[in-house]
Amino acid sequence: MQGSRAAQFDLYKLYAKAMYNVALRILNYEEEAEDVLQESFLDAFTRIVDFRQETTFGLWLKQIVINKSINYLRKRKMEFVSTDEVSEVPDEVSFDDYDTRLQAEEVRKAITELPDGYRVVLSLYLLEGYDHEEISHILKISENTSRTQYMRAKKKLKSILDLKGMRDE
Amino acid sequence: MNNRLETFVKENRRSFDIMEPSPALWAKIEQKLDQKKEKKPIKLYLWMSVAAAIIVVFGLGWLYAGKMQSGEIEIADVNAVYAKKEVQFAGLIIEKRDSLAIFAAANPELYKKFTADLKKLDEEYERLKNELPTSPNQTFVVKAMVKNREIQLQLLKQQLLIINQVDDYKKVNQI
């Protein structure tokens, strides 16, 4: 089934930007994110017969984008589980201090500075709205690892923001 | 426990999706979509060719199997050298049998005995010939067939020799 070109363009206009940001947050490279976006839309358009109305087209497309992005990242040999894993779980991090000066753009930039494993887990949980169970399926890691990685990612994010705050003052 | 970050992100979710893909990307996707459309008929054509090839192969295989089952296989199909020998022997055998038949009238008892022996060998030969198409070791069967012919020939030679001597003896006695 081919669907009309105009309808395809409508879908593209509606989802391209959001999906591009999803891919970019995982990959951190604009070129790769664009490749993923292109492949995902082509996949979605050619496999549209497989799409069932159980979810929205957007969620279905997002799954394709995330899976492709993770595959790209794996090609770069990213390890989701760090070697010193399992043992301690860091304390919950407080962002109280940043109540007033926390700026979205600052946080967004700080996220790009996180190591691959942290960035992916944090993005999927915080921004794409997946829970740890879903993340464990997507990344093929344990739920506990996902939790630990998220805690560490948050801690790391705070320290990056701390440094920036110091620089700004 | 504090979830300020989570709350903050939730409240400012839109501010995180600010990057834009390059405007040329749709054109690329469109181009790829066009390529895929063109590919389809070629693919169908390819599948049809594959299907046709499979039918031809099966057809040939069926014909060949049919030929095998009808027992049309000859010694020459297995080994050309043995086939040549077999033809040579068969020719000589017919020749000797004809010679033997000349003495038949004079020595009917002896001739009967001789032909009984030959008949046994002939039956054995037919059995081997029937076995040949289905045998896992055809060269072996062909060898046995040629050997059979050779034995027939030698037997005939001896029979001729004996019958000649008997004939001579009778003639001498008559005189």
UniProtKB/TrEMBL annotation, chain A:
GO terms for biological process: DNA-templated transcription initiation. Keywords: Sigma factor, Transcription, Transcription regulation. The keyword Transcription regulation applies. GO terms for molecular function: DNA binding; sigma factor activity. Residues 105-157 form the RNA polymerase sigma factor 70 region 4 type domain. It comes from the Bacteria. Coiled coil: none annotated. Gene3D superfamilies: 1.10.1740.10, Winged helix-like DNA-binding domain superfamily/Winged helix DNA-binding domain. Residues 11-77 form the RNA polymerase sigma-70 region domain. PANTHER family: RNA POLYMERASE ECF-TYPE SIGMA FACTO (PTHR43133), RNA POLYMERASE SIGMA-70 FACTOR ECF SUBFAMILY (PTHR43133:SF46). This is RNA polymerase sigma-70 factor (ECF subfamily). It comes from Pedobacter psychrotolerans.
From TrEMBL, chain B:
The chain crosses the membrane at residues 44-65. It comes from the Bacteria. Keywords: Membrane, Transmembrane, Transmembrane helix. This is Uncharacterized protein.
